[in-house]
Each structure stands twice: as C-alpha cells, then as structure tokens.
Prior knowledge:
Number of helices: 0
Distance between the termini: 20 Å
Number of strands: 13
Mean pLDDT: 78
Strand order of the largest sheet: 2-3-5-12-11
Low-confidence stretches: 1-27
Number of domains: 1
Amino acid sequence: MTTTTTTNPVVVANPTYVTTTTGVPATTNTIIVTQTPPPMMQQEVVLAQPTPQHVWIAGFWTWRDNQYQWMAGHWELPPSSGSVWVPPRWSQEGNAYRFYEGYWQ
C-alpha cells in the first residue's frame, strides 16, 4: 500500500473542492467542499443479513465528479470480532465542509 504525505492541501482541477492525503493510504483522501451537503439521507431497502456476523453499513453522501453522490448501504464483514463501524460524516469548518471517511475501530 502506497502512503503519500503532504503538509498543504493540493487543489485538484476545480477550486470548489480540495483533495489531500496526510500520512494515510493513497486511496483515502480528505475532501473539502464549499457546497452544503444534502440534508436528507436516502431511503434504503436493507436486504436480509447474509450471516449473523455481517454488519449493515448505511449509505452516505460523498463528493465525486464535482457533485454530491449517494453511496448505497451494504452488508460487510468486520475485520475482527468486536470491531465497531464508525460511519463517515461531513463536518462544517468555516464556510466549507470536510468529509471524514468511515472506518472500523
């Protein structure tokens, strides 16, 4: 797994958002946008739980292709017993919004 570290945000293509990596795997980016995230979660149909070990990961809004996009919920196996899913979230910072990816704890 490649790790890239930067100290300053790097502007990517469109100045309405910034993508950076800060000592985390290159596939994980910090996203900052100036548009308010959609206020409503999408309604989802939760399918039958595949096994008692599977955990439902609820859908969420992310930023792709210069717009908010809905990432559908799904069942996932935790990496180890006792792992707890910390959901992704948007946090307002001044006039912008920062996206924090979900992770297993």
